[in-house]
Amino acid sequence: MLASWPRAFPLRLHDPAAVPDQVAAYQLLFDQICLKVVQDSAIYREGWDSLPQPRFWRQAMQLPPDSVMINIAKTRQVVGYMKTMHWVQRSERAKKAFEDSIRSVYDLDRDDEIYFTTGRRHFYHFAEVLPQIDRAVEIFEEEGVDPWYAQAILLIESPGRLQFSTEGAYGAFQLMEGVAREMGLTVNDSIDERAEFDPAARGAARLIRRICLPKTRQLLAQQGLAYRETDTWFRLLVMHVYHAGIGNVRRAVRKVRSEEGGIPFFQELWQTKSRRFGNASQNYSQIILAALMELDQLLQRTGIICDALPEMRDSSAQALPEIPLSEPTLETPPQE
Question: Do 135 and 198 meet the contact criterion of CB atoms below 8 Å apart?
């Protein structure tokens, strides 16, 4: 159900009690077009925005690809920055010596990994995805699926582009060929409906409704973990099933010792690897959170609220919380 936004953004991040407990679709005037987007206030109320992992990816989304963020893998603490070419040009011996110097300065174990993450600003063009989100909200609602999932997928999988992944997934919703066929799409030598937005959106919605949601419910029941399907952590776990498949997610979840869901569960899952549930899988939900927050900030900075539709004039929907985030601060990396 759609709701209209008020004309101002009165809420602030430091006042979490004022943030409404809801996920809702809203209409926003952006680039002279009234578009529907999904606002999830729970990620702020529950404190996901304060975690170092999504904060790290927000910085990566603001940094150009010619820069590298030097970070400690297990905590995503950024310890410095350098130009990408300066890192690439170093010999393997020099790279190892540099990594060892970071471990020494930060009192890390020899097994603690140091990552060198390039900026991703060139990849995440959230404004270009807004028209797709508008259409996907309608399609997912028609398919009986929470449009939160549509927005999350479109923001991070292939934002504003049509391209293949290294695994063979394709289209705005990055569907694998076999999965797309199972969900009713035509994929053969002459036609690939994964490239067509509406069929791909319906295929993604059906995949979530028929496979991802039931398998996630079953997995959590087996683990004895209580949940609500409106919980942020439940939604994120569904997205992991969408990305990595239930078998890989199941193996990783069974290694998690947390007896409750929520942030504690995910903080452990983000440190857990199991066969094909590796670094890319761990990052997946972190990037979703970061993208949702970056989109919120974009809309607050540039959006104008649409006039309420007649049937919505009595709506009591709240505005997005304002999310202050400074530009990445360049630090001096440890010396070799």
Answer: yes
What average pLDDT does range 44-50 have in this prediction?
A: 93
CA distance 267 to 68: 24
Confirm if 4 and 35 have CB atoms less than 8 A apart.
Answer: no
pTM, entire model? 0.84
- Among 60-64, 125-129, 161-165, the range with the most confident prediction by mean pLDDT is 60-64
Q: What's the confidence (pLDDT) of residue 37?
A: 87
Map out the domains of the chain with their CATH numbers.
2-50+123-310 (1.10.530.10), 66-118 (no CATH)
In this structure, the strands spanning 2-4 and 23-30 are parallel
Q: List the 77-83 sheet strands across, edge first.
A: 77-83, 67-72, 114-118
Asked if residues 308 and 4 have their Cβ atoms less than 8 Å apart, the reply is yes
Q: What is the dihedral of CA 206, 209, 212, 214, to 10 degrees?
A: -140
- Residue 23, classed as helix, strand or coil, is strand
Alpha carbon distance 333, 316 (integer Å): 49
Alpha helices (H) in 143-196, listed in sequence order = 147-156, 177-182
Q: The tokens of 299 are what?
A: 């809309």
